[in-house]
Amino acid sequence: MGSTSDWETMRHAARVLDELDVPHETRVVSAHRTPQRLYDYATGAADRGLKVVIAGAGGAAHLPGMAASMTHLPVLGVPVESKALKGVDSLYSIVQMPGGIPVGTLAIGKPGAINAGLLAAAILATSDEALAGRLKAWRTAQTDSVATDPE
Ligand code: RP5
Measured from the CB, is residue 5 less than 6 Å from ligand 1? Predict the structure, then answer.
């Protein structure tokens, strides 16, 4: 994520990964405040064994696109809700990648972070049967938790 201030949103992605027992790491990597850290992180990600990158940022949110430009790994972008423009700026910054460098863009804020975790798990589950089983069980539990009566 681009800032410690993004953690309140991005912790929901980490929580989902915890629930699905998916090993992961959490890092603050700012595209504009720590460009060298971003370069080192993105260029080294595949060699360190990472399989998917979730990048959350707000405002002029160039972190996911810049990360995607420096790794062939799938990058999932989460637009963090900004104060001034409610995350519409973040969404447009992340989703409007020119053709050639894709970023899989999720919804603004908490729902996007949750779905980034689930989508990362789904990508990993294509080559991990045990994880696929845990993901199916997670989805079943969610279905079972939906009340039929509103009161
Ligand atoms: C972006 O600027 C971050 O991703 C964050 O969403 C936003 C504000 O950062 P802080 O000023 O709170 O550190 O780079």
Answer: yes
Q: How far is the CA of 111 from the centre of ligand 1 (A)?
A: 19
Residue numbers of the domain that contains 9: 4-144
Residue 150 lies in a domain: no
CATH number assigned to the domain comprising residue 76: 3.40.50.1970
The ipTM (two decimal places) reads 0.96
Cα separation, 29 vs 146, in Å, equals: 37
d(CA 69, CA 3): 20
Is 109 a member of any domain?
yes
pLDDT of residue 37: 98
For ligand 1, whether the C-beta of 30 sits within 6 Å is yes
Could you identify the atom of ligand 1 that is nearest to the CA of residue 33? 14
Query: For atom 5 of ligand 1, which residue has the closest CA?
Result: 58
Specify if 131 maps to a domain.
yes
Asked whether residue 125 is assigned to any structural domain, the reply reads yes
Per-residue pLDDT at 92:
98
3-state class (DSSP) for residue 135: helix
Supply the mean pLDDT for the chain.
98
33 annotated as ligand-binding: yes
Contact of 28 with 3, CB cutoff 8 Å = yes
Q: What is the pLDDT of residue 98?
A: 97
Total domains, the chain:
1
